[in-house]
Amino acid sequence: MIIHKFIAKKGLAFLTLEDADDLWCLKRIIEPGDLISGETSRVIKRMGTYTRPDKGERVKVKIKLKVERAKLDSSFGRLRIFGKILEMPEDILTKGFHSIVATPNYSLWIQKDRWKEIDLRILKDSEKATERFMIVSMDRRDAGVGIVQGTHLQILPTVESGLAGKHYDMKEKSSRPYYKEVIEVIKSVYRPCTEIFVAGPGNTKNSFVNFLSKQKDSFVGHAKIIDGIDITGDDGVHMVLRSAQLRKYIEESKLAHVTALLEQAVKKIADGDDRIAFTFDEVKEASKLGAVDSVLISDKIFEHGIDEDDLAELLNSVEEFRGKGYLIDSSTDTGSQVMGMGGIVAILRFSLRASKV
User: Fold this and answer.
1) CB 297 within 8 A of CB 327
2) Which of these ranges, 121-135, 246-260, 270-284, has the smallest mean pLDDT?
3) Rg of the chain in Å (alpha carbons)
4) Structurally, how many domains does the chain consist of?
């Protein structure tokens, strides 16, 4: 999350949300009575002799709401903030209720009468440079491209070279259009200093990285080769994420950190270590006792019937005792494994059994 301004005396913060984690942070911060100002859309019906009464034009407008509730739409991808309209262009609407739909890359103002300590901590922890890296898994026939942001993996359209046959001699001249097409896909989502990891069978990955090094784009010098991957396309991208070599390159990233925590949790389960909790009720009980050191939560936990307000309360309880909560996107293997364990798993500081003795 980008915090552009924070005016403590007025209780005012101007924010830009960068990813799904930031939506969840905002959900936990917002309370009924807070003021939210942002951009929304309204349908404007034009008056005129030849204007159909059932048709209108959708336009973007600035709006200020007094919050009544905030709810995530089925996943962590959109946060719908509903409230009473305080300010809106007079030629559109000045009374009633409306909603703002916040998504990644959305900017807004939030004003509170009082920022609680937990609110400020959530805000501070969310202020980070969003971790991003790209994966290209390719051979001479096709290239799978994925971008990882936080714990979310987005697979981009596969690029096909148009070449076929095992013994086709892919010379430099014929490979150039294919490589340029892959580069255009990379450019479409690239940000400065994003690392690019290139993998795949054969020598194509080396040839592509060499071709990339001769370009004048800002990603030159940020490409690294990952060895030992023998498939391409979407499956190749997922296989690269499991690579030990990649883990060394991204060991400081959030994805690597939550993957290590999950491995630690699985080992505790295998060893019979009861400093672990993996049902919502168990984790909630542990959080109230200050026992939770880290908790991993799948973005699909709501499919288990968990209420998002209960989840927000649990996370706030964890952080009040200086624990850490991590929301994990199910697009990665780590997220899928957490979902397979019931959608939530926590590593505890001490056994709950010991606290009951």
Assistant:
1) yes
2) 121-135
3) 24
4) 3
Write out pLDDT tens, residues 69-91: 998 876 567 899 999 999 887 66
Residue position matching structure tokens 């349908």 = 43
Q: Which of 255, 347, 317, 202 is nearest to 21 (CA)?
A: 255
Task: Clarify whether residues 9 and 110 are in a common domain.
Answer: yes
CATH, residue 224? 3.30.420.60
Please tell me the distance from the alpha carbon of residue 319 to that of residue 119, in angstroms, as a whole number.
10
Domain extent for 324 = 254-356
* Res. 168: pLDDT tops 60: no
pLDDT digits (tens, 9 = 90+) for 291-344: 999 999 998 888 888 888 899 899 999 988 989 999 888 888 898 999 999 899
Which pTM value belongs to this model? 0.77
Residues 175, 274, single domain; the answer is no
Structure tokens at 293: 């050191």
- Which of 45, 79, 80, 83 is closest to 63 using CA atoms? 83
